[in-house]
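so my prof wants the structure for this chain in the tokens format not the other one, which i didnt know existed until like an hour ago. anyway here's the sequence
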Amino acid sequence: MSKAKTDQKPVSLQCAVLTISDTRQPDNDSSGDYLAQSVADAGHRCVQRTLSSGNLYELRKVFSDWIADANVQVILANGGTGYSRQKSTAAAVQPLLDAVITGFGELFRHLSYQDIGSSMLQSDAFAGTANNTLVFCLPGSTNACRTAWEGIIRDQLDSTHRPCNFGAGFHA
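here's what i got, hopefully its the right format
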């Protein structure tokens, strides 16, 4: 597996972070904090950040607003993807997508299996695109966000990552 980089100038992407939870608040949102800090550490900018209780229509509004906002290129959402009563992320977001990045969920569950075994079946993590915006929907645990960021998303947002990435489709 090649992780070669080119001498191409990296593109800094504008990202939005959404935490979907009925228990987290700004002062205890460890997954949102992790994602926002990881975005910054990778040279991107967190331009929007919010929390939502997971109401289907509230989620559709937040996602729709960000997808329509030319200043948001990437949405990183965490929470609402497991098998629980609050599982509403897929129902809210998938109808908004123009295309699904099928391999994301498959690879995420493979990487998760290495950490949590068969419990990875409980994750409905997925990704796609809508209106030229990348959308990543992750489980709410900070460990799951770390698995997705370090194992997939960081490289795919890096416009210098080879042989291919999603970041190269955006211009500085």
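also thought this was worth mentioning. The chain has five helices and six strands.
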